[in-house]
Each structure stands twice: as structure tokens, then as C-alpha cells.
């Protein structure tokens, strides 16, 4: 099942909607339509208005779509600042817990990262304060007033935008990595210590905050607990990714790949049983398929392909029948970390290294992990 759908692009940045976003949007529409409560002077919801139910849902849908549009522009603010520094943005995805901008690489310069991280909360707080000013100037609200339906509904929409954007801006400034506040903290620390150490300290501070948030969520709101758990694991994952990227900095694919003529290949006319024997001898889990080392690569065959063939048919099945002809390759002068990311996104364990259509070697996940261990030591 496809989970994310592209709905367009802004300034060349693809905008994606995750299916969970549609669920949370419907939940917000329902909550705003059936409830009304006042908090910090804001009326949240249309439930108390003296209007037909269908009209409450119309106003609620408008408020929900406008609010989630500001969430999108929160992420777009991050992306545009990062893009101005040369960072490639793969896209922005909206899902149940908010939005996320997918960037090729986080700016390593602390000042750039601080500006990029601060852009989102600055946008949310700016919109929130502006909406609050409008709400304050044109209020107060009389939800039950029969002759002021449009005015009251419009002010409730403005109040929702003001309240939730101010909360969103302040929440994102909490120093819990990988939220915006955590990235600002990491940038501040990175001005005074190595990048990896700054990341580890920012993650440690963030995890302490998230544990406290999770405990609070147990007693106040289960959604806080869910957000805390999600962010806790996201922080751990980003810490690992940062350590790996910094450790592999300056390492090229050519530095870690297995070069010809040491690459083990298999001919396309071999049987699957011959391939299994080769795997047993060489202890590799995947091979380029070639007539010879000097001939073009026809495909790649792996142990996963072998497992699809019943043992009774392996003597009559040729390698060329099960190989993957969609060759995923990388240049020899590419960064080793880019090779690791490509393996992860493609869910494969090895890449063919090719320059100008000619195979120079092969690089595996094991090669990269070994390089990380050696350099980390």
C-alpha cells in the first residue's frame, strides 16, 4: 500500500501527504465542530454557535485546513532557509504528528543550522501573534449571537490559528532533539565543541526532556506520551546518522570498494545450484552477473533471489531468470555516506561502482561498516 501521495510543489519542493495526515485532519474537523472551550481568551471550536450542524462542520473544515496550511509553511520555512545554503530538499511530508522536511544533509555550519532551525518557530509565532492581534482588535466573540454568524465564525477561525500556532512555535523551541529547539541547542554547543560531541550532548538533554514529557503525558494527555516516544527514537536514530556521517567525512566510495579483478561475478547461464555453491565458497550474499569481468554487467543476483526458488527447481533455473536487471550503481568519487544512504533507501546490501558505464568494482554495506569501525577507533 502506498502511504504518501504528492499533492504539488512549492518553489520546487515536493509536498507529500501521508495517509495518517488525512485521519488527523478528520479528527480535528470533528473536534472543532462538536466542541467549544475557552482557553487564554481564545474560543476553540464551533460547538456553542447557534447555527446548523452542517455549517459548524463547514467552518471547522476551513479552520482545520488553514491551521494545517500553517504547519506546512512552518516546514517550508525550514526548507527555504536550508535551500538558500545549498542543501537539497527531497520534499515535505505532512503526517499525523505534524510535518517533516526531508533534507539530503543537515547544514554542518552551526550558524546555518541555528538559522534553519529557528525559521519554523519564528514563522509559527509570527503568524500566531498576528492572528492574535486581529482576534483582539475585532473581538469580543458572541458565539450564540444569531445575527453575527460569519463574524463570530471568522473570529473563532482566527483564534484557532492564533492559539495553535503560538503553541506550535513554543513547543518546537523545547530543547528536545531532533525538534527545532534541540537543533538550536546543538548549533550553540557545536560552536564550542566537536560536532559529534555537541550532537550527543543535545540528544542527552533532549531525551531527559522527552522522558519528563512522557511521564507528564501519562497523567495529562496520552498524545504527549505518543509524541515523546516518537521523538525519543527519532533522536537516537539521528544521533547514529550524525556519528556515521561525520566518521565517514572525506571517505570516497573508491576508498572502500572491492576493485576489479577481485570482484566475484557469476555467469548468466549458471544454474541456481551453481550459484548457491559459489555463495558457500566465497561467503558473499550478492554478485554482479557477467559473462566475464570485462563484459557488461547484465544484472545483480542475491541470496534473496535464490530463496524465491524451490530447491527442486534450482537445477533447472538459470541465474539470468532470477537476477535483477535494474542495476543500482554509484560513481567511484561519490561520498561513502551517500552510498550508505542509497543502500538504505533502496533496501539493498551492495552497489555496483560504475564510471562512464564501466564497472570498476562493488561496494557493500559490510565495507562501509568496516570503514566506520576503523575510523571510529
What does it look like?
The chain has 377 residues and is of the alpha+beta class. It folds into two domains: 4-247, no CATH class; 253-376, CBS-domain (Roll). It has 13 helices and twelve strands. The chain has helices at residues 19-34, 53-84, 110-138, 149-172, 180-190, 195-219, 222-247, 253-256, 272-282, 303-307, 319-322, 336-346, 365-376, and strands spanning 4-10, 13-18, 37-39, 42-44, 89-95, 98-103, 258-259, 286-289, 299-302, 329-330, 350-355, 358-364. The strands form four sheets. A four-stranded mixed sheet has the order 1-2-5-6. A four-stranded mixed sheet has the order 7-12-11-10. The chain has a two-stranded antiparallel ribbon with strand order 3-4. Strand 3 and strand 4 (42-44) form a beta hairpin. Helix 1 (19-34) crosses helix 2 (53-84), helix 2 (53-84) packs antiparallel against helix 3 (110-138) and helix 2 packs parallel to helix 4. The chain starts with a strand and ends with a helix.
* Helix percent band: 55-70%
Main sheet: strand order? 1-2-5-6
β content, as a range? 15-25%
Query: How many separate domains make up the residues?
Result: 2
Mean pLDDT: 87
Q: Which shape, going by the Cα principal axes?
A: elongated
| Rg measurement, Å | 27 Å
Number of strands: 12
The total of helices stands at: 13
Order of SSEs:
EEHEEHEEHHHHHHEHEEHHEHEEH
Low-pLDDT residue intervals, each spanning 5 or more residues: none
Structural class: alpha+beta
Taking the sheet with the most strands, its summary is: 4 strands, mixed
C-alpha termini separation: 42 Å
Amino acid at each position: 500500500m502506498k502511504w504518501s501521495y504528492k499533492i504539488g510543489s512549492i518553489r520546487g519542493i515536493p509536498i507529500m501527504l501521508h495517509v495518517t495526515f488525512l485521519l488527523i485532519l478528520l479528527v480535528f474537523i470533528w473536534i472543532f465542530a462538536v466542541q467549544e472551550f475557552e482557553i487564554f481568551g481564545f474560543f476553540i471550536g464551533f460547538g456553542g454557535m447557534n447555527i446548523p450542524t452542517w455549517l459548524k462542520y463547514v467552518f471547522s473544515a476551513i479552520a482545520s485546513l488553514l491551521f494545517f496550511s500553517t504547519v506546512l509553511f512552518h516546514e517550508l520555512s525550514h526548507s527555504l532557509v536550508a535551500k538558500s545554503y545549498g542543501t537539497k530538499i527531497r520534499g515535505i511530508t505532512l503526517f499525523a504528528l505534524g510535518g517533516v522536511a526531508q533534507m539530503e544533509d543537515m547544514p554542518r555550519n552551526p550558524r546555518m543550522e541555528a538559522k534553519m532551525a529557528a525559521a519554523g518557530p519564528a514563522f509559527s509565532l509570527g503568524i500566531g501573534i498576528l492572528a492574535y492581534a486581529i482576534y483582539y482588535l475585532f473581538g469580543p466573540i458572541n458565539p450564540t449571537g444569531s445575527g453575527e454568524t460569519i463574524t463570530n465564525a471568522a473570529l473563532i477561525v482566527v483564534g484557532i490559528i492564533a492559539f495553535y500556532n503560538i503553541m506550535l512555535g513554543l513547543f518546537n523551541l523545547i530543547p528536545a532533539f531532533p525538534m527545532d529547539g534541540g537543533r538550536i541547542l546543538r548549533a550553540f554547543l557545536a560552536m564550542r565543541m566537536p560536532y559529534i560531541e555537541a550532537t550527543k550532548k543535545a540528544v542527552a538533554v533532549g531525551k531527559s526532556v522527552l522522558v519528563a514529557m512522557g511521564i507528564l503525558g501519562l497523567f495529562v494527555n496520552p498524545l504527549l506520551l505518543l509524541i515523546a516516544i516518537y521523538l525519543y527514537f527519532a533522536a537516537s536514530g539521528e544521533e547514529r546518522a550524525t556519528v556515521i556521517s561525520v566518521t565517514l567525512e572525506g571517505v570516497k566510495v573508491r576508498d572502500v570498494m572491492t576493485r576489479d579483478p577481485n570482484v566475484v561475478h557469476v555467469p548468466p547461464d549458471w544454474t541456481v545450484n551453481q550459484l548457491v555453491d559459489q555463495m558457500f565458497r566465497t561467503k558473499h550474499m550478492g554478485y554482479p552477473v557477467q559473462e566475464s569481468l570485462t563484459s557488461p554487467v547484465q544484472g545483480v543476483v542475491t541470496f534473496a533471489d535464490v530463496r524465491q526458488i524451490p530447491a527442486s527447481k534450482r537445477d533447472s533455473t538459470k541465474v539470468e531468470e532470477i537476477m535483477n536487471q535494474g542495476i543500482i550503481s554509484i560513481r567511484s568519487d561519490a561520498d561513502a555516506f551517500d552510498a550508505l544512504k542509497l543502500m538504505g533507501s533502496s533496501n539493498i546490501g551492495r552497489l555496483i561502482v560504475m564510471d562512464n558505464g564501466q564497472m570498476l568494482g562493488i561496494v557493500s554495506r559490510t565495507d562501509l561498516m568496516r570503514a566506520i569501525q576503523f575510523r571510529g577507533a
